[in-house]
UniProtKB/TrEMBL annotation:
SUPFAM superfamilies on file: Glutathione synthetase ATP-binding domain-like
ATP-binding recorded as keyword: yes
Lineage: superkingdom: Bacteria
Annotated protein name in UniProt: YheC/YheD family protein
Pfam families (UniProt xref): ATPgrasp_YheCD (PF14398)
Keywords: ATP-binding, Nucleotide-binding
Originating organism: Paenibacillus terreus
Amino acid sequence: MGTVAKNKWVKYVFMKKSTALSPYLPETRMMSQQSLWGLLERHRHVMVKPVWGSRGRGVIQVSDLGHDRYAIHYESMKTVIQGRENTYRYIKSKTGSAQYMVQQRIDRPTIHKQPFDLRVIVQRKKNSSRWTVTGKVIKVAGKGYIVSNNTRSSGKLLKFNPGIKSSTISYLPAAALEAEIDKVSLLSVRRLEALFPEHRIYGLDVAADRQGRVSIIEANLFPAMSHFRKLKDEKTYRRILSYKRG
Ligand SMILES: Nc1ncnc2c1ncn2[C@@H]1O[C@H](COP(=O)(O)OP(=O)(O)OP(=O)(O)O)[C@@H](O)[C@H]1O
Ligand SMILES: [Mg+2]
């Protein structure tokens, strides 16, 4: 199962087939000229990312600036390219022959001008079918980056309530937002249970947009524990470990 578990495209297709979950998944296609220009026309901003990626490696943001100009944001580098042909060639120079997909960008809210999303840990104990949200952390992208991966972007980790309060969506009721995030996270793992019946832990990458609409960016089967260690949230960290043992 090692292979399917890390294949973002297979997991996306499987989740998208759930009518309950589908509205929470950003539109995603395998990368091609056609899918790239199609998604850019519909969404103006897309993320191009490796099917087998991890830790934010190889994630490229492409934006349609109009007048046949495209902005590329890769790692901490930004560049503007004239023309579709040049743009596609430039992206190809970064992606090489690796399998890539293209995904609608979620227009994330910010904290101190930097976009953020969340890592949500969902677990069940051995011999239990009850899923529980055991941890949640806000991941703020480091200055100049689009990916929120803590190590790659030198980003920040924050607890949920103080994070939301210091963000551009502080006007939203945090409790309602949190309940929605939990609901969509639980829907996701219940769906994935059919694909990975023995699995007991997920780390979901969840993003809210500027209106507070929740999306699932992806479901990780082997989530890092380092977020909760770094956050110094002892209580959450211990809870996650006790579910792992239990
Ligand atoms: N569609 C999107 N809209 C907005 N931001 C996105 C989108 N896709 C990815 N990102 C940003 O890029 C990060 C990395 O993307 P993704 O999780 O798909 O790749 P990854 O390499 O598997 O990362 P990880 O190993 O941390 O899970 C996300 O956590 C998020 O910050
Ligand atoms: Mg991820």
